[in-house]
Amino acid sequence: DIDINQALCSQSELILAFVAMTMQFISHRFPDYHDPTIEDAYKTQVRIDDEPAYLDILDTAGQAEFTAMRDQYMRGGEGFIICYSITDRQSFQEAAEFKELIYRVRHTYDIPVVLVGNKIDLEEFRQVSTEEGMSLAREYSCSFFETSAALRFYIDDVFHGLVREIRRKESSLSMIEKKMKRKDSLWRKLKGSLKKKKESTT
């Protein structure tokens, strides 16, 4: 299973955006109501690049103000969707700070992250430009999407993109582990060869 955390601001409209993105991804429907104090968890199976993916999606936005709980889900997540509203500059500023919070807990920047600017259906109320979102994504070396949870624009791209990032990291770690095992095996063979050579000369 792949654990995905959606995280960011405690404002109710952003929490609804998280839930809406997940519900649109899983069941193609937009929620009428959501209690922002409730932590939501969703499980789903999808095929991405002709491979099955079992996703555990945890929406923790309502718990963001509780440091202990926030740190707990940051430690457990394999990937993160950091979402802000393009109509709310404060949410973008909080998004800019969130990757640092992940680093503080995980002690590495090598964490699969997708940055999402939501509400492109409200373009006339935009406060955060696309260029600003792209610039922040470059700074954090992560993928960037602008979406509409209400209209289901680019929602699949967000989740599929994050799964691809997680798989890419897993593949990279697997290659490193194989190289380490190969080096260890060569070292053992060398030690064995030296030991036999030493025994033959005595």
TrEMBL record:
Top-level EC class as recorded in UniProt: hydrolase
GO molecular function, one term: GTP binding
Location in the cell: Cell membrane
Main subcellular location of this protein, as a coarse class: membrane
Gene Ontology biological-process annotations: signal transduction
Enzyme Commission (EC) number: 3.6.5.2
Keywords: Cell membrane, GTP-binding, Hydrolase, Membrane, Nucleotide-binding
Protein name: small monomeric GTPase
Native organism: Cyanoderma ruficeps
